[in-house]
Write a structure and sequence with these properties.
Elements: H1 2-7, H2 15-24, H3 37-45, H4 63-69
Length: about 80
Protein backbone atom coordinates (compact mmCIF):
# COMPACT_ATOMS: atom_id res chain seq x y z
CA UNK A 1 0.00 0.00 0.00
CA UNK A 2 1.35 3.42 -0.96
CA UNK A 3 0.44 5.09 2.34
CA UNK A 4 2.30 2.52 4.40
CA UNK A 5 5.39 2.61 2.18
CA UNK A 6 5.34 6.42 2.28
CA UNK A 7 5.04 6.49 6.08
CA UNK A 8 7.94 4.06 6.50
CA UNK A 9 10.12 6.02 4.08
CA UNK A 10 10.41 3.20 1.57
CA UNK A 11 9.16 5.41 -1.26
CA UNK A 12 9.06 9.12 -2.00
CA UNK A 13 5.51 9.85 -3.16
CA UNK A 14 4.77 11.80 -6.31
CA UNK A 15 2.99 15.12 -5.97
CA UNK A 16 -0.19 13.57 -7.37
CA UNK A 17 -0.13 10.98 -4.57
CA UNK A 18 0.32 13.68 -1.92
CA UNK A 19 -2.63 15.58 -3.43
CA UNK A 20 -4.86 12.48 -3.28
CA UNK A 21 -3.87 11.80 0.34
CA UNK A 22 -4.46 15.43 1.36
CA UNK A 23 -7.87 15.56 -0.29
CA UNK A 24 -8.86 12.27 1.36
CA UNK A 25 -8.17 14.02 4.67
CA UNK A 26 -10.31 17.02 3.66
CA UNK A 27 -7.27 19.20 3.02
CA UNK A 28 -5.64 20.85 0.05
CA UNK A 29 -2.11 21.86 -0.81
CA UNK A 30 -1.20 25.48 -1.42
CA UNK A 31 2.06 27.14 -2.37
CA UNK A 32 2.81 30.06 -0.07
CA UNK A 33 5.54 32.65 -0.63
CA UNK A 34 8.25 32.35 2.03
CA UNK A 35 7.71 35.96 3.03
CA UNK A 36 4.08 35.20 3.99
CA UNK A 37 4.73 31.93 5.81
CA UNK A 38 5.11 33.38 9.36
CA UNK A 39 1.88 35.38 9.02
CA UNK A 40 0.02 32.40 7.60
CA UNK A 41 1.28 30.13 10.39
CA UNK A 42 0.13 32.67 13.01
CA UNK A 43 -3.26 32.94 11.32
CA UNK A 44 -3.75 29.16 11.25
CA UNK A 45 -2.46 28.74 14.81
CA UNK A 46 -4.94 31.36 16.05
CA UNK A 47 -7.90 29.67 14.37
CA UNK A 48 -8.37 32.52 11.90
CA UNK A 49 -8.37 35.22 14.56
CA UNK A 50 -4.96 36.78 13.92
CA UNK A 51 -5.41 40.54 14.03
CA UNK A 52 -1.87 41.85 14.02
CA UNK A 53 -2.38 43.19 17.52
CA UNK A 54 -2.85 41.65 20.95
CA UNK A 55 -6.27 40.23 21.72
CA UNK A 56 -8.38 41.72 24.45
CA UNK A 57 -11.33 43.99 25.08
CA UNK A 58 -9.93 46.77 22.88
CA UNK A 59 -9.30 44.45 19.93
CA UNK A 60 -11.87 44.55 17.13
CA UNK A 61 -13.70 41.32 16.28
CA UNK A 62 -11.95 39.14 13.76
CA UNK A 63 -13.18 38.65 10.22
CA UNK A 64 -14.05 35.06 11.16
CA UNK A 65 -16.22 36.26 14.05
CA UNK A 66 -18.01 38.75 11.78
CA UNK A 67 -18.70 36.04 9.21
CA UNK A 68 -20.02 33.66 11.86
CA UNK A 69 -22.35 36.34 13.27
CA UNK A 70 -23.79 37.20 9.85
CA UNK A 71 -27.29 35.93 9.02
CA UNK A 72 -26.39 35.68 5.34
CA UNK A 73 -24.71 32.49 4.10
CA UNK A 74 -21.10 33.05 3.13
CA UNK A 75 -20.76 33.64 -0.60
CA UNK A 76 -24.28 35.01 -1.12
CA UNK A 77 -23.31 38.68 -0.88
CA UNK A 78 -20.04 40.57 -0.86
CA UNK A 79 -18.55 41.02 2.59
CA UNK A 80 -17.45 44.56 3.34
CA UNK A 81 -15.61 45.58 6.49
CA UNK A 82 -16.85 48.92 7.76
CA UNK A 83 -13.80 50.76 9.12
CA UNK A 84 -16.07 52.85 11.32
CA UNK A 85 -16.82 49.87 13.66
Amino acid sequence: MTVQRTETGKIAPRLSTVLVLARALGMDLMLVPKSLRPDLENFVRSGGRFLGQPSGIAAPPSLVDKLLQSDEPVGKKPFVIDKRD
